[in-house]
Amino acid sequence: MRRGFALPYLTADLPGTSGRLKDSPEDFMVDERLLYEPSGQGEHIYIRIEKRALSTFEAVRRIGRALGVSPRDIGYAGMKDTAAVARQTLSVAGVTESAARALSLDGITILDAKRHGNKLRLGHLKGNRFRATIRAAAPEALDRACAILRVLESRGVLNFFGPQRFGTRHRNVAVGAAILRRRFRRAVHALFAPVPEEEGTAVGHARQCAWAGDYDHGLALFPGSFLPERNAVMALRKAKLLVKSAAASEDEFAGVLKRIPESYLEFYISALQAHLFNEVLTRRFDTFDSVLDGDLAWIHSKGAVFSVESASAEAARAAAFEISPSGPIFGAKMLSPRGVPGNTEADILAHAHLTAESFRSCLGVTSKGVRRPLRAPLMETSVEPAVDAADAIVVSFFLPKGSFATVVLAEITKPVGPGSAEDVFIE
Question: Which of 90, 131, 169, 285 has the greatest number of C-beta atoms within 10 Å?
Answer without folding.
Answer: 90
